[in-house]
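Entry for L-tyrosinamide complex. Fields follow.
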Amino acid sequence: MAQVRTQDIVSATPVVAANPRAPGNGDGRSGTAVITRTKPRTKRPNLYRVLLLNDDYTPMEFVVHVVERFFNKSREDATRIMLHVHQNGVGECGVFTYEVAETKVTQVMDFARKHQHPLQCVMEKK
Ligand code: TYC
C-alpha cells in the first residue's frame, strides 16, 4: 500500500464505510471509518479555440485592435494573427475553457456589431 499523502486526497468521496456495526469501545466514537480516495485524479477541462473569420469589409486596423483588446496580444502578435486570417480565411486568437471562450466570442461579436463591421468570431472544441 502506497503511503497516503494528504496533498493527494483530491476527493472526499467515501469509498468504504468500514464495519458499521463495530461495538463502541467507550471512547465516544462510533466505530465507523471513512476511507477517502487517495489516487490523484486530475481532470483536465475541455478546451476551445477562439477563431476569427475573414471577410472583405472589416478594416485590418479594426481586427488588429480587437485582437489586442480582447486577446491581450501585442500589436506585433495581433498584426500577425490578423494577416493570417486575411490570407487563410480563419485563424486562432487563443485557447480557453468553455465559459471564457464563450465570453470572448460574445465580446468580439458585440464590439464588431457596435462598429457596424461584419467580423465573425467563433469557438471550436479542441
Ligand atoms: N480581409 C479584410 C480586409 O481586407 C481584413 C480582415 C482580416 C477582416 C481579418 C477580417 O478576421 C479578419 N480589409
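NOTE: The pocket of L-tyrosinamide is lined by residues 52-56, 58-60, 63, 82, 85-86, 119 (CB under 6 Å).
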